[in-house]
Amino acid sequence: MGLIRERGFKELVLVDDALRIMLDNISPVDNETVSVDNSVGRVLYSDIVAGDDVPPFDRAAMDGYAVRSIDVSGASPNNPIRLRVVGSATTSQPYIGVVNEFEAVRIDTGAQLPKGADAVVLLEDTEYNNGFIDVYRSVSKYSNVSVKGEDIKKGELLFRKGHFIHPVDAALLRTIGISEIEVYRRVRISLASVGSELVDVSEERREGGIYESNRVLVMGMLSRWPTEFVRSIIVGDDLNGLSEFVESSLLDSDIIVTTGGTSLGRGDLVTDYISRRGSVLLHGVALQPSKPVLFAIVDGKPFIGLPGYPVAAAISTYIFLVPVILKMAGVKGNLYPKVVEGRLRRRVASKLGTLQVVRCKVVKKGDSYLIEPIYASGAGVLSSLARGDGFLLIPENVEGYEEGSLVRVYLYRDVIEDGEGI
Amino acid sequence: MGLIRERGFKELVLVDDALRIMLDNISPVDNETVSVDNSVGRVLYSDIVAGDDVPPFDRAAMDGYAVRSIDVSGASPNNPIRLRVVGSATTSQPYIGVVNEFEAVRIDTGAQLPKGADAVVLLEDTEYNNGFIDVYRSVSKYSNVSVKGEDIKKGELLFRKGHFIHPVDAALLRTIGISEIEVYRRVRISLASVGSELVDVSEERREGGIYESNRVLVMGMLSRWPTEFVRSIIVGDDLNGLSEFVESSLLDSDIIVTTGGTSLGRGDLVTDYISRRGSVLLHGVALQPSKPVLFAIVDGKPFIGLPGYPVAAAISTYIFLVPVILKMAGVKGNLYPKVVEGRLRRRVASKLGTLQVVRCKVVKKGDSYLIEPIYASGAGVLSSLARGDGFLLIPENVEGYEEGSLVRVYLYRDVIEDGEGI
Q1: How high is the pLDDT of residue A418?
Q2: Do B92 and A223 touch (CB under 8 A)?
Q3: CATH 3.90.105.10: which residues of chain A?
Q4: Among partner residues A208, A336, A420, which is closest to B414 by beta-carbon distance?
Q5: Which of B238, B127, B338, B111 shows the shortest CA–CA distance to A308?
Q6: Contact at 8 Å (CB) between B413 and B31?
Q7: A266 vs B90: CB contact, 8 Å cut-off?
Q8: Cys staple from B195: which of A4, A43, A138, B260, with CB 3.0 to 4.6 Å?
Q9: What is the tens place of the pLDDT at every residue in B89-129?
C-alpha cells in the first residue's frame, strides 16, 4: 500500500488503495420483489432465464399473404401462380383454419402465421382479383416470417445477477411475460452534514452561520443509483447530537455518511467520536482537494466521513462514495464514465504523490473540445463546480499538464451549455 | 430538405430534417415553483443572480490564530513576535470583540474572522505559552483567509434560464440562501402502445397475443428528464379506443406519443386517424430501423407516432423523442452523449440515403475497446438491444464500415458488464 507522509495526517493513503480498503469491507444488501414496471435503475438479485420463446409463434414480418412456399416455387412476373384467398389474419384475429395447397391468407405484419403456411408473399408481389391472387415472385421457406424463438429461445440466460436494469432490459422482461423480479433492495443511507456553522436554508442565517449545501449535493449525486435516504440532517459540533445520529442510524441503515468534522482541528468531532466508537480503517487520502476522508466499521456497518467543504464533499462522493454504493447495491460491472477529450487552455499543476482533481469547463470549438481549468483558491469554492462541467484527474506520478496538452475530462453534467450534442 | 423515394412511403425525410420539423413546431411548457431540494434534474425558468456574497464574511481557511498582519511583519524562527491571545473563535461561536495591536484570537477553519484581524497564522507557525503566542512566520494580508465574496459576488449571474440543474448547482443555490426557484414544469406526456395483439404482462397471453413492452421502454428512456406521464395505456386497433385516448390526452397533456400503427398496412390506424384529425407534418423518415415515424399537430399540440417494433420504438425515442422532450422541458444547451471509440469486430453494411442504427456490444480489451455489432434479423428483435450497450450510427452518405475500422458508439448504458470504469 502506498503511503505519503503529510503534515497533519500521519499518513495519506493513495486513492486506489483507499478505495480498495472500502470495497473490501462492505457487502451487498439483501433482496426484495418489485414489478418490472418499477425495475428500471434497480439491480437483479438472480439470473433471468427465458421461460418462453420470443416471438412465441411464427408471425408475419411484413404485410402480405401467408402461403405454402412450395406452391409459389418458380413464380415470376412472366409466370404468375394463382392462389385462392381463403381468409384473413390480423394481429387481433388470427386465422384459425389451415392453409392448404394453392391457398393463401391475407396477413398483417405481426399476425400469427396460420397453420400450413410457411412464408409470406409481399403485398406488392401479388395482384388480387375476385377471391384469387396472382403471385409474381417465389419465396423460400420462412421468407418474411419472424420464426418462433428467433429473438429469444426458451431456457436462454438473459441477464445475470448483478445486472443494472436499463429500460431496454425491463422491456425485454415484459416481452417474455415476466411481471415481477427479485432485485437488491435500495441501499439505506443515513446522512449528516456536521458543523455548528451550518444553517438550513429554511432558517434565518445567524452571525457566523453558513447555509448548508452538502446534503442536496450528496443525495443528488447518488440519485441515479438504488438508494434510500433514511435520514439526512444537520448535526452541530456536539457529541450528543453526533452520537444520537450514529446510534439511530446503526439501527436502520446500511451505511452512515457524514460530511465535515473529519479533519484534525479542535472541532473535528467526527474523527474523535468514530475513533472511539468504531474501528477506523482509513483516515486521510492522497486526494486533492479531499484529504480528510475517514472510513470505519461501527458495529459491523460501514461509516464514511467525507470532508465538509462542498467541493471536497462532491469529489470524494464521486471518487469513493459512488463505487461503494454501487457495490452495496449489488452492481456487477463497471460504471462507464462520460468522457471528453480536448486540449488544455491553461497549464495545470499538481503535487507528486497526490491525485489532483481539477474542475474544468468544456468548450466546443469546431469538431474538437477545449478544456478550461477553473481557477479556485480552495475547496470551499463551490462555484468552481457549478461553473464547470467535469473533472480532470492528474495522477499521483504526474506534476501537471502543459497548456495545449490533450487530456480527458470526466463529465458530471448531462447537458453542456456551450457544447454540441447529437 | 432531403427526400428519399421508397416503396410504401411516398418519400422518406432525412433524420436531421425530420428532427428540425419537429423542433420547429414545439414550444417549451410553462413554469412552477419548487424547493431547491427537489430541483435536481429540473430546468431553470429564470436567470439566477446571487443575492449575497459567498462566503458572506471573511473566514479562516485554516486552523490557527487570527492576527493583524502588520503586527507579525518580519516574524521568523530567529525573530519570533509575541502576541497576547485574547479569545477564541469557532464555527459555532464567533469572537465578538476586536483584535487590537499585538493581540491574537485562536480560530478554527471556517470560523468568522474577528474584527481588526486581517490574516490567519497557521497553528504550526506558532508556540503557545501562558496566554501568549510566539509567531515564527510573517503573513500577508488575507493569508489563510477566505475573503467575503471570494466564491460568489453579490449580483453575479450564476445560471441562465434553461439551465439543467445538477446537484452541484442545487448545492450552490442553497449556499446563497435560495430555498425555492422557478422551473419549467414537467412535460406532461400521454403515451399509448397501439396494437390489438398487445397484452399487458398482468394478463394471460391469448392465442396470437404478444406481451406489450413499449411503455416501460419509452417511459424509462425519458425518466432522466423532467416528464410526467399523465396516462400510459394499451389501445387496440380500433378507432374508438384511439379516438378516446387522443381526445382525453388533448385536454391534459403537452404532447401525445404512440407506438405502433404508424406504418401503411390495413391495421395502421394511427396514420389514418391522425391524418384526418390533425395536420401531418412528417410521415416516414430515412432511419433504419425506424422508418414509420409520424409527426403531426392536433389542436395545436404535438403528436408523435413512433414505430411499434420495440427496437424501432427505442431508436426513434433516442433520436427524436428525447430532443423533442428536452426542448419542451426548456433545456438550453446540448445533451452530451456518452461515447466510446473502438475497432469494429465485423463489417457492417448500410443503405445509402438512410441513417442506419446498429446495436453494438462494447468489449474492453486492454486499454482499448472492441465494438461487436449485434446481428439482428429485424426491428422486432428486442434482445439485440438488451444484449448491446450502445448504437453505432452509419450516416446517410456511408455504405458501411469495414472490420477493424475505428468507430464511435453512443452508449445507452451506465454500467458495462465487461468494461472497466474509473
Answers
A1: 59
A2: no
A3: 35-53+155-184
A4: A336
A5: B111
A6: no
A7: yes
A8: B260
A9: 988 788 999 999 999 999 988 899 999 999 999 998 999 99
Place of cell 378516446: B244
Select from B174, B201, B214 the Cβ nearest to the Cβ of A212: B174
CATH architecture classification, A59-146: Beta Complex (2.170)
Q: What share of chain A is helix, strand, coil (3-state, %, to 5)?
A: 20, 35, 45
State the ipTM, two decimals. Answer: 0.86
Alpha helices in A202-309 (DSSP H): 214-222, 239-252, 269-277
Q: Per residue in A250-282, pLDDT tens?
A: 999 999 999 988 776 555 789 889 999 999 999
Q: Which CATH superfamily is domain A3-29+190-328 in?
A: MoaB/Mog-like domain (3.40.980.10)
Q: Place A55 in a pLDDT band, splitting at 50, 70 and 90.
A: confident
Rounded to whole angstroms, the Cα distance separating B93 from B106 reads: 12
Contact A211 B175 (CB under 8 A): yes
**Phi, psi (5° rounding) for residue B251?**
-75, -30
Which residues lie below 8 Å from residue B413, measured CB to CB, with a gap of 6+?
Answer: A164, A166, A336, B389, B390
Q: How far is B132 from chain A (nearest CA, A)?
A: 19
What single letter denotes the amino acid at residue B344? L
CB contact under 8 A, A422 and B335: yes
Distance from CA of B64 to the nearest CA of A (A): 9
Residues 226-265 of B with CB under 8 A from A: 236-237, 263-265
CATH of domain B3-29+187-328: 3.40.980.10
State the cell numbers at A385.
463546480
Q: Please give the CATH number for the structural domain made up of A339-411.
A: 2.40.340.10
State how far the Cα of A23 lies from the Cα of A323, in Å rounded to an integer. 8
Could you say which DSSP state residue A265 is in?
Answer: S
Is residue A6 very low, low, confident or very high in pLDDT (cuts 50, 70, 90)? Answer: very low
CATH number of A35-53+155-184: 3.90.105.10
A 268-307 residues inside an 8 A Cβ radius of B: none
B155 touches chain A (CB under 8 A): no
Closest CA to A225 of B226, B337, B415, B417: B415
A206 touches chain B (CB under 8 A): no
Q: Touching check for A385 and chain B: CB below 8 Å? A: yes
Cα A15 to Cα A274, B220, B421, distances in angstroms: 21, 35, 15
Q: Which residue has the cell 498582519?
A: B69
Rg of chain A over all Cα atoms, to the nearest angstrom? 31
Predicted TM-score (pTM) of the model is 0.88
Q: Are B63 and B122 in contact (CB under 8 A)?
A: yes
**E-strand stretches of B151-186:** 157-159, 180-184
Question: At A220, which amino acid appears?
Answer: G
